[in-house]
Amino acid sequence: MKVTPLGERLLIKPLKEEKKTEGGIVLPDSAKEKPMKAEVVAVGEKVENIDVKVGDRVIFSKYAGTEIKIDDVDYIIIDANDILAKIEE
Q1: CA distances in angstroms from 59 to 1, 27, 38, 65, listed in the order given
Q2: How many beta carbons lie within 10 A of that of residue 83, not counting itself?
Q3: Alpha carbons 47 and 41: distance in angstroms, whole number
Q4: For the range 69-72, what are the long-range contacts, defined as Cβ-Cβ under 8 Å and sequence gap of 24 or more?
Q5: Which of 87, 82, 85 is nearest to 11 (CA)?
Q6: Strands 37-43, 9-14: parallel, antiparallel or unpaired by DSSP?
Q7: Strand intervals (E) in the chain
Q8: What are the cysteine partners in each disulfide bond?
Q9: Global pTM?
């Protein structure tokens, strides 16, 4: 299934967080914070005020967007204004 965000929205895929602490303690899902880093999967046609493209890694607002599941994969549809930064490695 192909999903194309409308207007000034992006489709992002949250990045998996480490399940262990530095001390080796395994964290259950209920103890982990919601991830705030994601990879851009699709960009709406009216996104103009930020410089992101498919494949970029970004940091987004903690409670932003609408969570959806496509083919058993979690995604978030988010407004372009909720993108806080681009991660460059």
Answers
A1: 25, 22, 6, 13
A2: 23
A3: 14
A4: 70/1, 70/3, 71/1
A5: 82
A6: antiparallel
A7: 9-14, 37-43, 57-60, 66-70, 73-79, 83-87
A8: none
A9: 0.81
